[in-house]
């Protein structure tokens, strides 16, 4: 009987702890509808991405385990993927990011219309970022999501929980 009570108590404690961990997880989009999401935790979440990156074990509290480490010193995109909208709508971007050296950016560019929105990564601690502007997209457009660090000066950053959301 004591073993059963002890087992029940331990299960209750672990259930409570796991609920707290889940409730502390970063929630970026609120009520917005998510078009695309990646926290770089698995090979499936890296599918479709091109360019240079490393996945490392560093993330904000409650934000999983891994993040994409982007670094470089050239003007070309360092890590990017293509998205194809299926209808006319407005898209925004949200992410958690941390500057390691000289900052970086996350850009959502509609290649068809040559319009873009971006997030600037400057903080040395993990920070939740959301775009103030929205990007108009429509069926047939080619949209590029880019994580870029570097330019003419070398830099690096960490990024996780990247979301492209429908804005209203």
TrEMBL record:
<feature type="signal peptide">
    <location>
        <begin position="1"/>
        <end position="19"/>
    </location>
</feature>
<protein>
    <recommendedName>
        <fullName>Lipocalin-like domain-containing protein</fullName>
    </recommendedName>
</protein>
<keyword id="KW-0732">Signal</keyword>
């Amino acid at each position: 009987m004591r073993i059963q009570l002890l087992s029940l108590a331990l299960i209750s404690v672990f259930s409570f702890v796991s609920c707290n961990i889940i409730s502390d997880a970063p929630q970026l989009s609120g009520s917005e509808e998510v078009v695309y999401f990646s926290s770089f935790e698995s090979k499936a979440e890296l599918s479709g991405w091109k360019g240079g990156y490393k996945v490392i074990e560093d993330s904000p509290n409650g934000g999983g385990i891994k993040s994409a480490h982007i670094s470089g010193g050239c003007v070309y995109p360092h890590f990017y993927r293509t998205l194809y909208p299926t209808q006319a709508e407005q898209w925004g971007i949200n992410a958690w990011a941390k500057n390691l050296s000289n900052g970086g950016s996350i850009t959502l560019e509609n290649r068809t219309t040559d319009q873009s929105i971006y997030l600037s990564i400057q903080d040395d601690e993990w920070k939740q970022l959301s775009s103030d502007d929205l990007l108009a997209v429509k069926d047939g457009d080619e949209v590029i999501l880019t994580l870029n660090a570097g330019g003419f000066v070398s830099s690096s950053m960490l990024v996780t929980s990247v979301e492209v959301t429908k804005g209203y």
